[in-house]
Amino acid sequence: MGELCSNLTSGELAIEVEDLADERIVCRWRGRSVERDPAQVLGPYFEQLLEAAHDRCVPLEMRFDSLGHFNSSTIAALIRFIQSARGRGVRLVLFYDARLKWQRLSFEALRVLDKDDNLFQLVSV
Amino acid sequence: MSAEHGSARCVIDLPVRTEWKNIDLVSTSVRDCFTAVDLDRDECHTIAIVVAELMENAIKYGCWSAECEPGFVRVRIDESPRRTIVSVENPVDPDSRVLADLSATIAWIRSHGTAEEAYRERLLEIASGKVGKLGLVRVAFEGNCDIEASLSEDGRIVTVTARCHV
Q1: Mean pLDDT of chain A
Q2: In this complex, do A80 and B126 lie within 8 Å of one another by their Cβ atoms?
Q3: CB within 8 Å: A75 and B119
Q4: Is B49 on the interface with A (CB under 8 A)?
Q5: Share of chain A above pLDDT 70, in %
Q6: Chain B contact for A114 (CB, 8 A cutoff)
Q7: What is the per-residue pLDDT for B6?
Q8: Res A5: pLDDT
C-alpha cells in the first residue's frame, strides 16, 4: 500500500485530505487558488495523489464546494490533472456547488472532457 | 469609489501596484464593495472574476521596467443595472506583440457562435497539451462579456475593456 496522502497549503489555498485507505481518497479544497503559476505546486502534488490512488486501486474525490475562487491557471492545471488521471486509469470524481454560479459555469464546462469511460465524473452538491 | 444611488450606478477607479498579491486583494475588495451596495452574490463574484483575470493578464504581460510608465495597473469598474464595464490598463513596450496577441485572442473568441463554445474549445486544447491561455476566454464566458483591446496614441498603454451582462 502506498503512503497516506498529506494535506497541501499554498498561499491562500488549502487542500485537506481524508485518506480512507482502501476505499477512496477525498481532497477538500478550501480558500482561494490565486497563485501566478499554481501548476508549480499543484502538479507534483497531484502526481502524489494519483500514484497513491493508482497503487491502491481507489478513486480520487475532489471536493470544490467550499472553495472560494480559483483562477484560470488553476483550471488549466486541473484539466491536465484530469487527463493524467485518465491516463493512469484512476477514477476521478469532482464535486462542486451548483448553487454558486461561478462553480456551476466552471465545472459544468468541464463535461466536455467526459469520455463516457467512467473514469471522470462531475457531481453537483 | 463613487455611487449614484438614484441611477444605481457605481464606479471604482484604482491605480494598483503590480505585486501579484494585489490581484486577490483588489478582486475580493471589489466583490465586497458591490455586495455592500446590494448586488446579487453571483453578480458580485462574476465581476470579481473578470477583474482578477484582466489584472492577471495586465501584470503578466505589462512592461514593468524603468522606461515604461506608469508603473501600475489601472482598474476601472463602472457598474449599472444590466451591464458592468471593467477596464484594465497597463504600460507595454511599444515594440511588443501584446496588442496583437490580445486582438488575435479576441478575434478567436468572436469567431465562435458563443463564448461558451470558445471556452469549451479552449478547454479541449489545453487537455490535448496545447499551451492555451484561458483568462480572456473565461472572462467572455463566465462574465458574459464583449471584450475589446486598444492602444493609446503613443503606443505605450494597452487597455482591455470587458462589457459584461452579468
Answers
A1: 95
A2: yes
A3: no
A4: yes
A5: 97
A6: no
A7: 47
A8: 86
Separation of alpha carbons B146 and B125, rounded Å = 22
Whether residue A113 and residue B135 make contact (CB cut-off 8 A), yes or no, is: no
Q: Would you call A79 and B46 a contact, using CB atoms and an 8 Å cutoff?
A: no
- pLDDT averaged over 10-residue windows placed end to end, chain A, 125 residues: 80 94 93 98 97 95 98 98 97 98 98 94 97
Provide the pLDDT for residue A93.
98
> What are the 10-residue block averages of pLDDT along chain B, 166 residues in total?
62 97 98 90 96 98 94 96 94 93 97 98 96 93 98 96 93
Q: Where are the beta strands (DSSP E) in chain B?
A: 2-4, 9-16, 73-80, 83-91, 145-151, 157-164
Q: Is the entire prediction scored with pTM above 0.90?
A: yes
**Best residue of A35, A37, A71 to probe chain B, by most B CBs closer than 10 Å:** A71
Is the minimum CB–CB distance between B123 and chain A shorter than 8 Å? yes
A-chain residues near B45 (CB < 8 A) = 69, 100-102
Distance (Å, whole) CA B124 – CA B56 = 22
Cα–Cα separations (whole angstroms), residue B120 to A34, B125, B142: 22, 9, 12
> For residue A100, what is the nearest residue in chain B, using CA coordinates?
B42
Do the Cβ atoms of A109 and B116 come within 8 Å? yes
DSSP chain A: -PPPP--EEETTEEEEEEEETTTEEEEEEEEEE--SSTHHHHHHHHHHHHHHHHHHT--EEEE-TTEEEE-HHHHHHHHHHHHHHHHHT--EEEEE-TTSHHHHHHHHGGGGG--SSSSEEEEE-
**Of A79, A101, A109, which has the smallest distance from its Cβ to B45's Cβ?**
A101
